[in-house]
Amino acid sequence: MKILYTISAILLFTTWSLSQSSVEINGADDNINYASDTAYVVGDGDGVGFIFKKFYVVNTGNTTNFFYSRSILSKSNSSLQIQLCDETQCFSTGNDPYWIIDDSFEKTIQPGDSLEIKPQMTFGMSDGNAKIKYYVLDGNKNKIDSVTVFFTSTLSTLKQEKLAFNIFPNPAQDVVTLKGEAFKKGGEIVFLDALGKEVKRTKIMNANNQINISSLKKGVYFVNILHKDGEKSAVQRLIKQ
Fold first, then answer.
1. Where is the chain membrane-spanning (predicted)?
2. The dihedral of CA 29, 46, 133, 157: what is its sign?
């Protein structure tokens, strides 16, 4: 009987060992292991309107299926938009205090491999800060590691006024009008998708620019102005219906 108990205990231990979930969250630009630590991201978005930090989730265990979640620890104003992107798509995580990725987006990382994740904050014309804690969960949605990201946007008031513009209607279906101080310097209007990829570009015609967006897919876009002198405007968020 003792032998049977011993064999059972060994089998249970072996099964647990073979299915152990373990990851490291490393900074993509500094190679620091941020396990349960804080990364600070400060900037004006370089005219793109969002700031971000790239990490690699490295699978150091034996399982392959993972989920993401996040908690809002603090946020200075509701206009700040929080997203979590990976190598293929972005997830708008909204304003709920706690958010978890949908089951249909379960991520697979083979042992020894890694997956890039990019927490980001979109701030448009608003200064502010947000402290967000991001978690990696195992296949049973148990938290196994985390990193806290403290975002701070630094767009000055003077720069906001000089580079401001409005988009209406918003949300929009076929045509939008862009109007504001930013168009006085001339240049081009640039549309980026949620992953930061340019999807449309058009020249500024006058102070009131009507642009046909019917060719764009439904979703969230970021619009900015690239001036002739190389300066970029602040970014406005556009929802295409």
1. none
2. positive
